[in-house]
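Here is a protein:
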Amino acid sequence: MNRIDPDRPLRPVSDETELKRAFSCFPSGVVAVCRTGDDPGGDPIGMSASAFTTVSLDPPLVSVCVRNGSTTWPALRGGTVGVSVFAAHQGDVCRRLAGPPEDRFTGVRPIADDSGAVFIPGAAAHLACTVFSEIPAGDHLVVLLTIDALRCDPNVEPLVFHASSFRALEARRAQS
């Protein structure tokens, strides 16, 4: 069994490689954040995000972290966005949504609703959200989103990102 060696010295946080490695130790779900574009055809715009978490039940809030300098977020922030919690089998779609903007929806038939929110079909959950607030935080922006409507299926296995790879969850029985 691998364990962290307690005799191994801590490294300075200024070591960016080691910081990224430490961040990768924390598994997270992965989401798509998408909406209909303002262009005449209303083509979908969107991106993948692994820095996503639930925040509050009252009001219903989730957060997503967006890199400063993102060219996609300014186009998404107006109106209602669709947050799709990727299912375990959607790693390829997730990677595509993290790639070049012109290829993000290749091979995907997104679902759009009347609010302009766009969802990835087959996802574990769909949340229609509006921006509650944006908080500058280092080289990212923490975006708090109010959930206005949702649908979900907890039986759908989520996509999990850990150590720069997609992983699967394992159900474990409680020990007696």
